[in-house]
Amino acid sequence: MDPHSLKKLNALRRERKAAILLTDLGDGRDRVVQEADTVAGPLGEAVGKAFRSGRSGAVEIEGRAFFLNVHLPAPRLVVVGAVHISQALAPMARIAGFDLTVIDPRTAFASPERFPGVTLHAEWPDEVLARDPLDAYTAVAALTHDPKIDDPALLAALGAGCFYIGALGSRKTHARRVERLLAAGVSEDRLARIEAPIGMNIGASSPAEIAVAVLGSVIAALRSRGLGAREQAA
């Protein structure tokens, strides 16, 4: 590996940014491709697919062989609200490979007894997220129904470009939420990124079923980054 490529790759990994080490197997030359970089043609399609899947491998493009070594940050799921849905979601998210954090300033809910083995913060979201900022490989699920707790987390998620943002509540509840966030200066285009009601529409009713629906939406968003609506539906 080119020493310059290694230095750049290590820097991107420290910053929790996705990268691919692209090696031409014909001449051995390599370069680092970031997720925001433009790579034209069929090679660009292969690079985009590798970023979405997270899988490394060799590809042949127009008679040339390349190896794509994919380096993705570990996906994180930040859950705001130490509620029953969160209790069901925690073990599911761990099995699916997500680093899970639960935030809730209400100490009666945010207790180690209710969330064993989970990274838990019995603090206000803005305090926690100031120390540990969100990023593009983080999903945020706001589940408290309390604007004082949910809204700051949603604002932080929108500002950080999180790959998934969802909020619990009915359409009526979300309409009031939208009014508050518009008043806080968030544009309608950015607010459209919030999935509310949260989770896939599978008719979920119990906390465990809602947790399944939420995790399904999070995984779908992670694996469809950068695709248009038509491609996502295909």
Automatic annotation (TrEMBL):
Domain XdhC Rossmann, residue spans: 77-216
Pfam families: XdhC_C (PF13478)
Natural source organism: Nitratireductor indicus C115
Signal sequence bounds: none
Protein's UniProt name: Sulfurylase large subunit, molybdopterin cytosine dinucleotide biosynthesis
Bilayer-crossing regions: none
Domain of life from the UniProt record: Bacteria
